[in-house]
Amino acid sequence: MLSEDNRRDIIKFRIEKAHNVFEEAKEVAALKRWNLAGNRLYYSVYHLGSALLFSKGISAKSHSGVIHQLGETFIKTDILPKEYGKLIARLFALRQSGDYDDMFYATEEIVMPLFDKVEKLLTDLEQLIEV
Questions:
Q1: How many Å apart are CA 9 and CA 34, to the nearest integer?
Q2: How far does CA 4 lie from the centroid of its chain?
């Protein structure tokens, strides 16, 4: 069993990681590496979502589990807006396509509009975390 200090440290680590990964997304976007920028945007949400779930004592063992739990616990209950569910699904699909699909290249037109939306989502996720 984790001590309260260890629990807080894990949550803080995941929050910090999410913010660092978001900064990486900006850096690789400046280099016009759109697949990687999309990947980093997804992972920034994944890490902060994981921190939120952990802070509430909710377990998720996979990427799909994190997405599902965020949807069930925070989006379907209207704690977070429904458009966040669509955004998270879009980010996951972008990451999957960029990492695994042959002949797929994300573009600036696909990735750049996501930055402001992801930044707002990160802020809203973080506000729900109880450390």
A1: 32
A2: 24
Q: Are 30 and 37 in contact (CB under 8 A)?
A: no
Expressed as residue numbers, the domain containing 14 is 4-127
CATH number at residue 102: 1.20.120.330
What average pLDDT does the segment 46-75 reach?
A: 96
pTM: 0.95
Q: Which of 19, 42, 21, 20 is nearest to 110 (CA)?
A: 42
pLDDT band at 103 (very low <50, low <70, confident <90, very high): confident
- Kindly tell me the sign of the dihedral angle through the C-alpha atoms of 39, 42, 43, 44: positive
Cα distances from 74 to residues 43, 67, 109, in angstroms, run: 19, 10, 29
Is the model's pLDDT at 98 over the cut of 90? no
Q: How many domains does the chain have?
A: 1
How would you label 97-126 residue by residue, b for 16+ Cβ within 10 Å and e otherwise?
bbeeeeeeebeeebbeebeebbeebbebbb
What is the rounded distance in angstroms from the CA atom of residue 105 to the CA atom of residue 107?
6
